[in-house]
Amino acid sequence: MNKTLFKIIVVIVLFTACDNEEPGMLNNDIPLVKAESSYSVLVDEDVEYAEGLAHANGSNSSSALSLLLDVYYPDNDNANRPVCMFIHGGGFQGGTKTKPEIINMANYYASRGWVFMSIDYRTVEELGIITGKTPEEVIEFHKGIAPQEWIEFSLQNAMSSDDVQTGIAIYAAQRDAKAALRWIVANADTYNINKDFVTVGGASAGAISTVALGISELEDFRDEISLTDDPTLSTTNLNESYEVQSMIYFWGANIKLELHESIYGVNRYDSNDPELFMAHGTMDVNPSTPFSEATELEGIYNLLGNFNELVPLEGAGHGAWNAQVDGKNLNELTMDFVVERQNLNVE
């Protein structure tokens, strides 16, 4: 990978019904959701799902930072709920789990029977300042936050210290997103979640992390750092596993997996990857998330024979939250995809 490609990377920053099942009959092993808003939504805010090392207030010494998520869930007694975890955007520079459009999506899903989790994660904001530091000092500064080989690659290919920090944040964000999903699995009983019906989604940088989460191996972005270097890993439910059934991608890219492949020499795409829904503006001019990123992913999936659906948002740019296709908004389009592909029961 050359410096230009690395610069582009850091700019941003199932169950099926039985053949003989009678029409209209519910399969009690599969979650039941509602076609329309049917439940009041309860919210558990700022739930700690793990810790991660960070440089608070520009400190030269890293310390444990609480990593938080919000849980939206229906006010009902259903003991069999599907779950959707969503990852916000922000170019790995910042962003928030309480972005209004995400809250809207969370209430849309939870009012119809889903548990919806919106997560925060470490970004450049938590990584401190490296300006003026030597490469050796940068490696020591970020010890435990990213693997040495990841830091070295960032130093070798970045055009500025800001690019180095973004490269490190790309790794930390993925480590945290995986920790959040492991927390969800570990706490499934608390929210009556059926772990066989897991959806992960994200927008922009969050979509990049979504693709990497669903396609990478369980050990990726988990085992590259030791507990000695990062004691907070002990808070991340390391023994839990998960299986993502569906991915929701809004105006993202494949670039994180390309970066991972450049560093570790492995291509993680295979015929067992989760099914993928993509919505992407055809006029997206963000250098790291052009519309061609969606068609590239479509091509990879088609070559492997994996189910995917690309919805071009004609004439839309980056962040087209208000887009509509055939009279349906993004909440409706994604719910239709998940319901159909996971074969959920619907009333």
Shape: globular
- From the N-terminal CA to the C-terminal CA, the straight-line distance is 50 Å
- The helix-strand sequence is HEEEEHEHHHEHEHEHEEEHE
- Strands of the widest sheet, in order across it, are 2-3-5-4-6-7-8-9
Count of helical regions: 9
Computed structural class: alpha/beta
Provide the gyration radius in Å: 20 Å
Class in CATH?
Answer: Alpha Beta
* Residue-averaged pLDDT: 93
CATH superfamily: Alpha/Beta hydrolase fold, catalytic domain
Helix fraction by DSSP (H/I, runs of at least 4): 25-40%
Based on the structure given, which CATH architecture is correct?
Answer: 3-Layer(aba) Sandwich
What is the number of domains?
Answer: 1
Unreliable runs, pLDDT <50, ≥5 residues?
A: 11-25
**According to CATH, what is the topology?**
Rossmann fold
* Largest sheet properties: 8 strands, mixed
The overall strand count is 12
The proportion of residues in beta strands is: 15-25%
Compact summary:
With 347 residues, the protein is α/β, with parallel strands linked by helices. It contains nine helices and twelve strands.
